[in-house]
Amino acid sequence: MKFIPFSISAIVTILLVWALNKPWGSIPALGAFFSPQQGFWQNAESTDNPGSISINDPFIKGSVEVYLDDRLVPHVFAENESDLFFAQGYLHAKYRLWQMEFQTHAAGGRLSEILGPGKDSILLLNDRQMRRLGMVYGAKKALAEMEAEPKTKTTCDAYTAGVNAYIHSLSSANLPLEYKLLGYQPEEWTNLKTALFLKYMSYDLSGSENDFEFTNVKSVFDQHAFELLFPITRDSLDPIVAKGTPFDSAKVKVLMPVTADSLYFQWKPVVPETVSKPDQDNGSNNWAVAGTKTASGRPILCNDPHLSLNMPSLWFEIQLTCPQFSAYGASFPGAPCVIIGFNQNNAFGFTNAMRDVRDYYTVKFKDESRKEYWFNNSWQPSRITVDTFMIKGGGYYFDTVVYTNIGPVMYDQNFTGREKYRTNGSNYAVKWKAHEPSNELMLFYELDHSTNYSDYQSAIKYLSCPGQNCLFASKAGDIAVWQQAVFPAKWRRQGDFVMPGTDSSYFWQADIPQDENAHMVNPSRGYVSSANQLPVDTTYPYYIGGHHDLYRGKLINRKLEQMSSITIKDMQGLQNENENLFAETAMPVLLKNIDETQLTSSEKELFNIVKTWNKRNDPNEQGVAVFHSWFDSLETTIWSDEFAKVPQPYITPDESTLIEALIRDSAFQFIDDISTPEKETLAQQVLKAFKKAVPELMIAKKEGRLVWYKFKDSGIQHLTRVGPLSRLHLKTGGGVHVINATKQFHGPSWKMIVELTDKIRATGIYPGGQSGNPGSKFYDNFVDTWASGGYYDLWFMTKDEIKDKRILSTITFKK
Amino acid sequence: MKKFLVSLLLTVSLCFVAGLYLPWWSVAVIPFLIAYLIPQTAFKAFLTGFLSVFVLWFLIAFVLDSGNDHILSVKVATILPLKGSYLLLNLIGSFLGGLVAGLGALSGALLSKARG
């Protein structure tokens, strides 16, 4: 009896400890979380400058000095390359470990392992999609290539050792905050993870296909209509390679299969809804001007890749210096080398080529077992694999994926994208250039080492997927752009729709020879540029395909043409340019066709805002919100009737297609609303579209949200989408079709300008901060400057500057 | 009074050292052992345990938070959601730590009493 009080007290204590020792839903285990010696308080970094530290590791052969400057950019000086990349791996992990692992988990289809299956299993579906797309399959092939080349093998081994040296130094107290919030532990880094990360970039940058969407559209429209709606080129195109540049005839010839009309173009199945694709605006701007156009007489290179903007940033600034080379720029936490940057001789940057390098094929299986598929008139054995998914909170999910000679069967009766959508259970295999062995890391490795144009030319040959516009400028005075990847040579419209997989004549027949890739080197006009537009005009001897922007590239070229005695400051102005060329094209058509007398007084108020708008997407303009809503509404008005019969998923024509059609022909056949007996005119539709856009705009106006920066509401989201770790509601201008491509959560992710004078001058910025720790003052310290269009000087440090007052502290690596 | 002070100081210092090496729930075990070895009334034992860890956790967090200019605590106090109040965040955490320690100490005192 006398033990009863003790027993009760002990039980209560144990229950409380138990309850505080386990996570409840999204609430982390509170005991450890709140313990100030182990939990999140340990991530509250002192705002004093970081102290100097020394790290001993048996991997190090010489010694490495790292100088951290006042923006926390490490300037790494090593005695050999292996030590250099070890240090880079260590530093990436020290500042960005959680993100590195999270992104490779996303690439490898393992998010449900750390986040759970998600609402309606959406995360599990995404994981399954990544595996079925063959991300791990492709990464393993890339890894084999990377490890077969001694240079990249040594680089990756050193990098991985550096990451792991940091991971091993961690205790539960100094784990990054996100591990504590989500309740898991980092695992060992491997070279495969680096390969997976690079494969993720291939995924993110090769979403320029709409095979299912187009197939569905084609099931409703005839060929004439389809060509009108989805033209291959545009009237006002200003391609990367200037119009009129002569091309030799194609070195490789491809043949359209004889059955194409009966089996391919006429073919009308309904295809499944796809889960998700990367943002179709994953584009970018880059340009380089020759010395003839600059004040210094030396080339200037500019680049701003447009990607999803996240905290922590995709980018990490670093300087890498060793006896073999010295480079500065933005690196990918997760991979060695500088990716977009410059070295002692050259500068280099990238934009997306937006080419279609991923095609889908229908597969015919002999029976339910799917052990054999029909190909070239015989049954062939398939390979069946079972993918295992661990689910947070316990349990596994097993997914059977069948591989044919095309690639993995991505969609089938077990996986149709969103589960609620039913299909006829067809099997669609995916063929993707990223499945083929390649060593993209070698591209960056060689660019970092490059001394001249011919080094650049051989470096870019390692880029096989994703297609990029590789920009180059050198101290020697060369400027160049090459659209590079291993592009399949396609017959016209090949792979725009889902293809029959039963017959090799539908396969990619050859690759475009590398020297026939679109390029421009030292043109007399004194500049090269790319902004995701079509690379060439229709005289190019190969079919291009893909999905391309029009207006940014046109405006960049127009501005560059007019500029002379260019300085870095001028280039900053151009990267921040908010002029809206699309609006300049579309507004006259809208204004010409609207009958103002039909507007009510409140409608008139909004109309006057857009009528007097200066066609610039500056943060405080109001007209831009009205214009975009009006044009979106016009698109709906024009397309929704004809597209009503098209099964999901589909896409409607580009804005540029519509406006060019209306300019060409005010009686464009799609203007009429086919669901009504009368025949509508363009004027009627323009008015109707405006009236439909008004209610939402009025609400925005009433709430004071009509000014562009509030209407657009840009922000940088944390990778987990947790609000307080994000930086939301930023005051930014720009937008789609604008050189300053800042949309809501997407935009210029690293803005860099390099002037190739003897001592290189460069400026750059990315929205974020060098530290991935939300408890660091370096977590988001670049964001406000970025939002206001500012830049930092990029300090290409030399060893005799070690006493410079910008240096906050040092990290030394020794044996 | 002497017992109370000795227990308090012992609990604070041992919990601090244990926190560097042992899991967080050492703040239940240590007060339990101390209250068992230095018997006090149940109430006083609870108070010793509670106060020791409440103060210990509060002070450590306070020092870290001040050195951090509340950069992190405001974010965590928005996630949790405590409207960004870093003080409330620290009080809640310290209270939880104190409660665990107090109950540990109470159990220790009650066991000591039961065993005579």
General description of the model:
- The complex is a heterodimer of chains A (815) and B (116).
- Chain A has a domain at 581-712: Penicillin amidase (Acylase) alpha subunit, N-terminal domain (Orthogonal Bundle), CATH 1.10.1400.10.
- Chain A has 23 helices and 31 strands.
- In chain A, a hairpin with a 2-residue loop joins strand 9 and strand 10.
- The mean pLDDT of chain A is 94.
- Chain B has 116 residues and is an all-alpha fold.
- Chain B has 5 helices and no strands.
- In chain B, helix 1 runs antiparallel to helix 2 (26-37), helix 2 (26-37) runs antiparallel to helix 3 (42-67) and helix 4 packs across helix 5 (86-114).
- The longest helix of chain B has 29 residues, at 86-114.
- The two termini of chain B are 21 Å apart.
- In chain B, 51% of the residues are buried.
- The model of chain B has no long low-confidence stretch (mean pLDDT 96).
- Classes of the chains: A alpha+beta (815), B mainly alpha (116).
- The A-B interface holds A 2-3, 5-6, 9-10, 12-13, 16-17, 20-21, 30-32, 34-48, 177, 181, 722-725, 774-777, 779 and B 16, 19-20, 23-25, 27-28, 32, 42, 57, 60-61, 64-65, 67-69, 71-76, 78-79, 92-94, 96-97, 99-100, 103-104, 106-107, 110-111, 113-114.
